[in-house]
From TrEMBL:
Organism of provenance: Actinophytocola oryzae
Region named Disordered: 304-414
GO terms for MF: ATP binding; ATP hydrolysis activity
Compositionally biased intervals (Low complexity): 317-347, 354-387
Entry similarity comment: Belongs to the ABC transporter superfamily.
Name by which UniProt lists this protein: ABC-2 type transport system ATP-binding protein
Coiled-coil regions listed: none
Keywords: ATP-binding, Nucleotide-binding, Transport
């Protein structure tokens, strides 16, 4: 029996492809009423996990459920979960509208719904165009439209921002937030924290198929450790004095300063004064989220540094063990400047300098039709909580016949 909760539960999910351990013992819950980011570097197992969740790959062990049921037991799954794993696979000669109508018929949804979802994703004017001529961003929108056909309670999207321009990303952000605020469930994967940081409330970070952090994004923010950067006249002498004061997390910076974790500016100043070491500068530095993300996922593909240079800091050995939600990782390493967060703009505010015509089109994308908004806002919205996973479902999931891709009713499936 489905429990109607909209909750996704992943429990000890494991997948081996021959010698490759793509996913290892992964456990997390995704709660309705929130957008959860499923983050990890390339090859960390995100797509494999989503494919298992959507019944396209059989797990080696472990299980996952949506609404308390394995995907295979959802009956008409497209009515419950809309999944987009790859914005490909459209018949190139078929119009967007016809593509949607094929899926609508398979799901038992009225033809009119095809036009509704085309408008919803901003493709209303492109319904008669062949999908083969669509840009990557338009294909992403068409895949999302397919997933929305069944008016699902749960959305599972693999790298949905891939190929979208900044306006498209801003639109997607407002769209997913509105969807979640109506009490529905959204799980989106990305390998870029900055890309989804403004969209997600909860985060699951994986590396090498294992959970590195799982909890509210705010929890991760709170775990940002600060460090004191000091420019001493004699770094060696100060490092020894700090060591004697049991402040051991001290490392040199590339420009000859010392970075100290676990001490205040005042403590460092006092110790330097007692040791007779002059300080030419001291300040406190906060690690940003991007640095923490690097820290949590570093080492998966530690590349060879070119021409004998030192490898970029932050690409060292991976953490030995995962971090439970609320347990901050110890320290952090310097990383090269990462990607700047997307400079989005609030829905309803035209982007600076955008041509008027383009903005009008964007404004249309940013606003779901009134009836959609109303329908969503009537959904109950639950509090965002990390809850322990419930015990396994009463019956074992019926495994799919093999690792074959199956066309899912949610659309866009491989
Ligand atoms: N069908 C398959 N056969 C063999 N190995 C596979 C298969 N699918 C995935 N893998 C391997 O499993 C690991 C995880 O891949 P996966 O695609 O799940 O990662 P990902 O996090 O989605 O990566 P990306 O961000 O690059 O899409 C990789 O080492 C990949 O090569």
């Amino acid at each position: 029996m489905q429990d109607g909760s909209g909750r996704i539960v992943v429990q000890n999910l494991t997948k081996h492809f021959g010698q490759v351990a793509a996913v290892q013992n992964l456990s997390f819950n995704v709660e309705p009423g929130s957008v959860t980011g499923f983050l990890g570097p390339n090859g960390s197992g995100k797509t494999t996990t989503l494919r298992m969740l959507l019944g396209l790959v059989r797990p080696t062990s472990g299980w996952s459920t949506i609404n308390g049921q394995p995907f295979e037991r959802l009956g008409n799954p497209g009515r419950i979960v809309g999944g987009v794993l790859e914005a490909q696979g459209f018949h190139p000669g078929r119009t967007a509208r016809d593509h949607l109508r094929v899926y609508a018929a398979a799901m038992g949804v009225a033809d009119q719904r095809a036009d509704d979802v085309l408008n919803l994703v901003g493709l209303g004017a492109a319904g008669n165009r062949a999908a083969g001529g669509f840009s990557l961003g338009m294909k992403q929108r068409l895949a999302l439209a397919t997933a929305l056909l069944g008016d699902p309670q749960v959305l599972v999207l693999d790298e949905p921002a891939n190929g979208l321009d900044p306006e498209g990303i801003a639109w997607l952000r407002s769209f997913l937030k509105a969807f979640a605020q109506s009490g529905r469930t959204v799980l989106i994967s990305s390998h870029l924290l900055a890309e989804v940081e403004q969209t997600i409330d909860q985060v699951v970070i994986i590396s090498r198929g294992q959970t590195m952090f799982y909890g509210p994004l705010d929890e991760l923010r709170k775990s940002q450790q600060s460090r004191v950067i000091v420019a001493p006249a004699d770094p060696q002498k100060l490092a020894v004095a700090l060591q004697e004061a049991r402040i051991t997390n001290v490392s040199p910076t590339p420009d000859g300063k010392l970075a100290i974790v676990g001490a205040t500016i005042q403590q460092v100043g006092d110790i330097a004064a007692q040791a007779g070491v002059a300080l030419y500068g001291v300040h406190e530095e906060k690690a940003d989220l991007e640095q923490l993300f690097f820290r949590l996922t570093s080492g998966q593909y530690a590349g060879q540094a070119p021409y004998g240079q030192a490898p970029p800091p932050g690409w060292g050995a991976p953490p030995q063990q995962g971090y439970a939600p609320g347990t901050p990782p110890g320290g952090y390493q310097q990383v090269p400047p990462g990607y700047a967060p997307q400079q989005g703009y609030a829905p309803g505010t035209p982007p600076g300098g955008a041509p008027q015509q383009q903005w009008q089109q964007q404004a249309q994308w940013a606003q779901p039709p009134a009836q959609e908004q109303q329908a969503w806002s009537q959904q109950p919205s639950g509090p965002l909580q990390v809850q322990p996973a419930p015990p396994p479902p009463p019956q074992d999931p019926t495994p799919p016949s093999g690792d074959q891709s199956t066309p899912g009713a949610g659309g866009g499936h491989q």
